[in-house]
Amino acid sequence: MKTVHPSIVLGAYTWEQDSLPRDEFQIRCKDLYDAMDQNGWKAMFIYGDADEHTALAYYTNFVPRVRWTIAMIPREGEPRLLVSMSSRDMPAMKLMTWITDVISGWQWEAGFDPWIAGLKGDAPIGIGTIGMERMQPRLFKSMEKSLGDRFHLSEAQGFDDSKRPLRPRELSLLRESCEVVKTASKAMVKAWRSGVNAEAAVLEGERVARSLAAQDVRTLVSLDGGKTLVPYRGEFKPTGDDIVVHFAVKVQGFWSELFVSASKGPNRYPKVEAALDALKTAVKPGAVGEDLFSKGIQALGTRAIHPVLTNSFGRRIGLSLDEGCPLRADDASPMVAGNVYSLHTGTRDDKGGGIASAMVAITANGAEVLCDSRDALKD
Amino acid sequence: MARDVRIDETVKYLEKEGFDAMLAACNGQNLFLDSNVVFVFSGVRPIAESAVIIERSGRSTLVITPGWDAERAAEISRTDDTLGCDDLADGIERALKKIKLNPAKVVTVGLVTLFAETAKKIEKVLGGKRPANDGFASQIARVRNADELAAGKKGTWIAERGYERLREIARPGMREFELTADLYCYMKGMGAEDNFLLLSASQHNLAVRASGHRKLDVGDIILSEITPCYKGQFVQICRTTVIGEPSPLLREKYKVLQDAMHRGQEKAVPGTKVKDVANAINDVFRAAGYGKYCQPPYMRVRGHGLGITSDRPGDITDDSEVVLEEGMVFVMHPNQYLPETGYLMCGEPVVITPQGAQSFSERDAELDFIPV
After folding, report:
1. What pLDDT digit, counting tens, does each position of B251-290 carry?
2. Residues B4-26: what's their mean pLDDT?
């Protein structure tokens, strides 16, 4: 789920070497070196921006707070990060990554050209790329001009939609993220039950998450009883007897999320929880999106899936809020042990709506529930 | 209404240049140093890639992604029509067909900010590359209207309350991110929909940065760049706060920044070039013996425009030929690294008036301290 993108990602992103030591990145970068060897590339460029930086963060631990960053990883030699911020900001940027050569990308030719000049070989020298489809055209033109005929870019395959299972350290970090989203969403529900309006309750949840060192918090809230979800408005108006919220937090690079629906009256959408239970029971290695979609639809009965879920009962989650593999009617990709999915289900009518969710880690024989909407509702 | 004036200006431009329509697009990433063209023409801060189509007749259509956000967007938008879609190029194609527009006579704004793949798909919808005027929205919104000025002043009020909160709760032992979490949510509770909030502390700062895990301590100098956005209007105050009594030397050096600020404000009258304002500020540092520090990495710029509506007049630098106009709003900040004290911050949001750059702040930056 997306909401309005903030002008800066302001959480504490210092590289935590106790949790992610240097060797973790050596292990991760083996993927890059293997791809370089197989394709005869001399280097790989990984592009990320403040909104989407999954691959960049995975290989470098660096998260762009604003604009863009390019990691230039050579097969031999020292990697460089080109960051779209001023030279004044580089000392702070260096705190986020194991890469020591971190320089401003604002003087493009000074930062890019000397580095590629260090790549040796017969022209055209091959370079693999990840994430370049998000690069803005004017930046791409600058890169093309610098590369000239001497270098040739090729999109690396298998990196954006990799089925790579989470490594133990990553799963541990993701569990920590789930603990934060549970604590924060509980604080949100508690505030709402104490009588504050929906936006104020969500803000209390956000305050709790950020004070627990969440690097990012994204929320959507319903101001019409669950029919639609909207980004923060700051109106703080009374919103009736129901609250429906999407609450996502990022902790040490990993996202977790929950949809939370609560009511001061009886639950008007019991089939939503029934559908979530059906999905949780069905997830396991080999399960495919189209089957799970059928189970979700069946459990909702005559009710239609909530439009905010865009015809999907979930997707992969981790370094990005949306790592693909949507659980849709047309998805046939099997679940793999070691992957983590966010499952969601919901519906709406002319009176309101309800949405519930859970995060599950696929295990060898089934799935482990990492967090669940119901966690937020417990006293 | 500001919208009508800007749409009218756009229509005049289209007529003059012989275009049938303008297609203004943004990628959904909000930068407080850039204009958000979709916000300028619609009043909507989109979640993702979006566009506004303005016809020569003055009729306008907002095309917004994701599709599920269309109800919110339609409620807020000042455009005549709103179309929700999950693929921007598809949505634009549908909108163009609906209004029966000839794609060959469209001028574009901001396609260069889109993701490369989306830009290519839109070019295909338009039947090829079309003329671009990427600075158009920023240019026509360069002077704030009355509503925007009022929102900027309210934003400054929020920023100042945020700073009061900092002075109230910051204490030794507190981590930087904990302080930031509180301030960010405190200001959000007052209506700040966004906040480019940099806050960091050190005994000798090299620059301001986003908060980390560091614990505040006695003798720290807290730097804060408090930048709330209220109704699409970013403002910024820059503050320096010492934990414990500041030294006489620090007080003496901070006064150099305040003098530079005053000199810049006096110089910044309508018709003045930006470079002359930057030089007026730099002259104060030069006179104090810090001429060689008037360049990166010891400082960045002497201020800058505040984006989303318009980033004009751009960066306040000693090589900018931009001419200031009455009603322009920007932050003026002679923030500076000095070898004896480290980086110090002093800055206010200002509006250009015939009397100079008038601060929005009730209380301009002082060297404050938190008693311990």
Report:
1. 999 999 999 999 999 999 999 999 999 999 999 999 999 9
2. 95
Question: How much is the average pLDDT of A112-131?
Answer: 96
Q: Which of A86, A88, A138 sits opposite B112 (nearest CB)?
A: A138
From residue B102, alpha-carbon distances to A115, B108, B129, B134, B149 in Å are: 46, 13, 14, 20, 38
Residues of A in contact with B111 (CB under 8 A): 137
Task: Residue A293: give the domain boundaries.
Answer: 168-377
Task: Compute the residue count for chain A.
Answer: 379
B182 touches A at CB < 8 Å: yes
Q: Write down the ipTM of this complex.
A: 0.94
Q: What is the pLDDT of residues B105-143, one digit of tens each?
A: 999 999 999 988 899 999 999 999 999 999 999 999 999
Of B114, B140, B166, which residue sits at a domain end?
B140
- Give the residue numbers spanning the domain of B136: 2-140
Q: Is B290 left (phi over 0), alpha (psi -120 to 50) or beta?
A: alpha
Contact with chain A for residue B151, Cβ under 8 A? no
Spatial strand order in the sheet of A353-362: A314-316, A340-348, A353-362, A367-372
Whole-angstrom Cα distance, residue B310 to residue A300?
47
Within a domain: A238: yes
Chain A within 8 Å of B212 (Cβ-Cβ)? yes
CA atoms within 13 A on the CB side of A4: 23
The reply to whether A185 and A119 lie within a common domain is no
Distance CA A198, CA A203 (A): 9
Q: Please enumerate in sequence order all residues whose Cβ is within 8 A of that of B12, keeping only pairs 6 or more positions apart, or say none.
A: none
Interface check for B50 against chain A (CB to CB < 8 A): the answer is no
How many domains is chain A built from? 2
Q: Do A314 and A267 sit in the same domain of this protein? A: yes
The structure tokens listed for B281 are 């500020």
**Which residue of chain B has the CA closest to A216?**
B181
Which pLDDT belongs to residue A161?
59
Helix (H) or strand (E) holding B50: strand B50-55
DSSP of B254-266: HHHHHHHHHHHHH
- Tell me the CATH number at A63: 3.40.350.10
Ramachandran angles phi, psi of A39, nearest 5°: -105, -5
Q: Which whole-number Å values give the CA distances from A342 to A113, A257, A310, A314, in the listed order?
A: 42, 8, 14, 5
Identify whether residues B359 and B255 lie together within a single domain. yes
Which CATH number fits the domain that encloses residue B42? 3.40.350.10
Is B334 in the same domain as B360? Answer: yes
Closest CA to B299 of B275, B335, B253: B335
pLDDT reading at B2 higher than 50: no
Using DSSP's 3-state secondary structure scheme, residue B347 falls into strand
Residues A57 and A205 occupy one common structural domain: no
C-alpha pair distances (Å), B264 with each of B275, B332, B334, B352, B358: 11, 8, 9, 11, 11
Q: Which of A12, A65, A133 sits opposite B212 (nearest CB)?
A: A12
Interface test with A, best of B39, B69, B195, B308 (most A CBs within 10 A): B69
Instruction: Tell me the mean pLDDT in the region A264-283.
Output: 95
For residue A8, tell me if it sits in a domain.
no
* Rounded CA separation A59/A32 (Å): 9
The beta strand positions in chain A, using DSSP E, are: 43-49, 68-74, 80-83, 102-104, 125-130, 151-155, 216-221, 242-251, 254-263, 314-316, 340-348, 353-362, 367-372
C-beta of residue A276 within 8 angstroms of C-beta of residue A289? no
Closest Cα to residue A11, out of A238, A143, A292, A207?
Answer: A207
| Enclosing H/E stretch for B83 | strand B81-84
**Cα distance from B292 to chain A (closest Cα, Å)?**
15
Verify that A145 and A201 share a domain, yes or no: no
- Mind listing the pLDDT tens digit for each residue in A352-365? 999 999 999 999 99
Quickly state the pLDDT bin for A158 (edges 50, 70, 90): confident
